[in-house]
Amino acid sequence: MINVAIMGFGTIGSGVYEVIKHNNEAIKAEIWDDIRVKKILDLKDFKGQEVENLIVHDFNEILNDKEIDIVVETMGGVSPAY
After folding, report:
1. What are the structural domain ranges in the chain?
2. Sheet with 2-7: strands ordered across
3. pTM (two decimals)
4. For 4-56, how does the pLDDT look when each residue is reduced to its tens digit (9 = 90+)?
5. Crossing angle, helix 24-31 and helix 11-22, to 10 degrees?
6. Segment (H or E) for 12
7. What's the CATH class of domain 2-73?
8. Distance between alpha carbon 5 and the CA centroid of its chain, in Å?
């Protein structure tokens, strides 16, 4: 299992989530492993949405999670987010 964290859940971050969700089987066929989004870093809570339980507000929750294999940074701006 490959665990992904997405930093930012705006237009780009939510798009990354949808690509992983809707293309999961095709991705699995290419990489020979399951892939899932484990955490999403954002300021909002997204109450009532399917990602509600994935949302974290502190980057350290991602940084300290040894199960996270890939971090995708989708936050806007010209400087590195973290």
Report:
1. 2-73
2. 55-56, 35-41, 2-7, 70-73
3. 0.90
4. 999 999 999 999 999 999 999 999 999 999 999 999 999 999 999 999 999 99
5. 70
6. helix 11-22
7. alpha beta
8. 3
